[in-house]
């Protein structure tokens, strides 16, 4: 039977906008020694500004045309990068959404057909998959810029550099986690080594895995879990993520925590705990409530 105060704990959590899907997860939180985070939309805002557009030497498109084609390809995607590119294109005036085919490659990007042209938009892994040779471009500016490459009918057209920001409460939340007994914080991201490491260093995380495709995120979690449990088999690992690509890891983790608000329905469904507002401080609150509840039970 479940001690009554666990229901109290679930109630206290829900008053703070934290949905706990069972008393076992509240108890489980008190045993978490390692917290693994997704980057985009979890510790970062997931709202990207377009900082620069670099077109290839041979491109006949204007910057605005490149943005319009990009936004067309991204218009059916729920990825935070897609939302940001559509928003930027709206500002420059041209958004069209009548693409005839649309394929999303998780951790890579999008391919779509618009007015008979095949547009591929995503990272260098997508360009390699599509046999697009990316010509020399000026070296990128800052470490925290994510580069999105655009090809039309297999020809490289240009690079859109976008930049995300750390959420204002991420650092406070991480500090509070450490105070409530979490020993290790790790980021697992599909973004590049450069960007992932810059974010991890800024946040003061203990470890970072970069360039991880969705299935590799599960493998990374399993490795982290094995390390954590080798110290103490009772220790648990929590994963915190927001994206549709995060559902497999959320399911696999001892405790899967979805960041709601901006997060995808798939993530919310796969999770054991849901942070409804998307503010990372809710994560620290969840750990505190779990601890308090346990101290009442025993
Ligand atoms: P994260 O781990 O940061 O949440 P994802 O696994 O969702 O990232 O995506 C990893 C990378 O794949 C992105 O940094 C981007 O380069 C590329 N990507 C994924 N989806 C898209 C998209 N819709 N448009 C452009 N690029 C994308
Ligand atoms: Mg994500």
Outline the structure in words.
The structure is a single chain. The chain has 298 residues and is α/β, with parallel strands linked by helices. Helix content is 41%, strand content 24%. It has helices at residues 4-15, 23-29, 39-43, 63-74, 80-91, 124-129, 170-179, 193-203, 214-231, 247-252, 265-270, 281-297, and strands at 18-20, 32-37, 49-55, 101-105, 109-114, 117-122, 145-152, 155-163, 184-188, 207-209, 236-241, 255-259, 273-275. A seven-stranded mixed β-sheet has the order 1-13-12-11-2-9-10, with helices on both faces. A six-stranded antiparallel β-sheet has the order 3-8-7-6-5-4. Strand 7 and strand 8 (155-163) form a beta hairpin. Helix 2 (23-29) crosses helix 12. The longest helix is centred in the last third of the chain and has 18 residues, at 214-231. The protein starts with a helix and ends with a helix. The mean pLDDT is 91. Residues 38, 40-41, 242-243, 245-246 line the site of magnesium ion.
Key structural traits:
298 residues, alpha/beta, Rossmann fold, Calcium-transporting ATPase, cytoplasmic domain N, 6-stranded antiparallel β-sheet, elongated, binds adenosine-5'-diphosphate, Potassium-transporting ATPase ATP-binding subunit
Please outline what is shown here:
By secondary structure, the chain is α/β, with parallel strands linked by helices. About 40% of the residues lie in helices and about 25% in strands. α1 (about 5-15) runs antiparallel to α12 (about 280-295) and α4 packs across α5 (about 80-90).
